[in-house]
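We treat protein structure as text, and this decision shapes the records that our systems exchange. This encoding replaces a full spatial description with a residue-level series of whole-number codes. Below, we set out a record of this kind in full and without editing:
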Amino acid sequence: MKKSQIIVLTAGVALVAGLYTLPRVVVDNAEEGQSVENTAAAEAPVAEDMHNPNAKAVDYDQVAELRSKMEVEENKENFAIFADSIGSLYASSGKYDSAAYYYAQAADKVPAPARWEKAGNAYYEAYGFAMNQEKINTLAGKTQDYLNKVLEQHPERLDLKTKVAMTYVTSENPMQAIGMLREILEQDPQNGSALFNMGVLSMQSGQYKRAAERFEDLVSYHPEHIQGQFYLGVSYFESKQKNKAKKQFELVKSMTQDSMILNSVENYLDRI
């Protein structure tokens, strides 16, 4: 996590993690249970809250030229090439919803695992930025549709399974996400994405001691994981382990020059 995505956590600190909104569910205790298009892509799920506002502007003239060629192209392979090219223009501009729509056009016209994965990943990026519940649900479903096609042929792709799992966090059955993440960790106890997401979900549900355990595992296997290192410090702080928190935040300060993280670290250190 995506990370291009923002999650608001404790003390009003905004940091890169996974999703804007996570339900307050019991996570780790087994006992508790955009419109830029006005013609062919009118149905694409575009919205201002689903792209990176700091990304470069879209070259709409190039998009229009490619789209006009795509709309009259009869050869499936060429159609897919045009659609994929439009998707890449949007993706490079951080407009993941529009990118996903065109990647999906290419994948539907010429099905292939690589195209399914590209579409699914773009829908997942858009999902991470969506704020409206209807858009969240739609984009989660699209992510699942395309990434599950890849997983049917390549079940060993735990990175994609982790993304699918996280789309269930905002569903009516968020525990499905937890179950899938646990399955991933059974297969690969050192899986960084699964450990990180389990830790974040534990934090969101207020289980800071359990979150600390997850982040401890994460950084023991992946010591360079700066978000994990930071969230370990937050978990210590929130679980009243102030000495551990101070030591952890000092470690984070030595590991990064990211001003957002450093400012957040100082915020916590001032409170210890």
